[in-house]
């Protein structure tokens, strides 16, 4: 019984760490040379900015939903005409969901480390290809 209590406590501590990590990333919106700002649009036309990691594979531009909070991803699926700012340059793109072999190729070329996966709670990973409009 004591082992079960310890396991439950450790699990709850881990859930708290994941929630704190995800909240801090969402709040601080870290940006570096390998990021871009994607603007997705709600049904009413309101734009929402999110800093996301910029990925490239075979000369194509991709972004990934690597975290549990992913409202930006759902908005991009609902309205795939997005705006992106990359290194200060702005452009309009069509967000195309990536599946199958293309997904596997992009994922293999842009692996996430185990520590990152632990800190984010092992969310499923989805990719969008950004095709210039």
Helices, by number, come to: 4
State the shape.
elongated
CATH homologous superfamily assignment: Electron Transport, Fmn-binding Protein, Chain A
Q: Helix/strand-derived class?
A: alpha+beta
Largest sheet: 6 strands, antiparallel, barrel
At CATH level 3, the topology is Pnp Oxidase, Chain A
Rg to the nearest angstrom? 17 Å
Strand order of the largest sheet: 1-2-3-6-5-4
Report the mean per-residue pLDDT as an integer. Answer: 87
CATH architecture: Roll
Helical content class: 25-40%
Question: Can you lay out the helices and strands and say which pair or pack?
Answer:
Layout: H1 2-28, E1 35-41, E2 47-57, E3 60-65, H2 71-78, E4 81-86, E5 89-98, H3 100-109, H4 114-120, E6 126-132
Describe, in plain words, how this protein is organized in 3D.
The protein starts with a helix and ends with a strand. Helices cover about 40% and strands about 35% of the residues. The chain has a single domain (about 1-130), classed as Pnp Oxidase, Chain A, CATH 2.30.110. Strands 1-2-3-6-5-4 form a six-stranded antiparallel beta barrel. It is built from four helices and six strands. With about 130 residues, the protein is an alpha+beta fold. The chain is elongated and about 60 Å long.
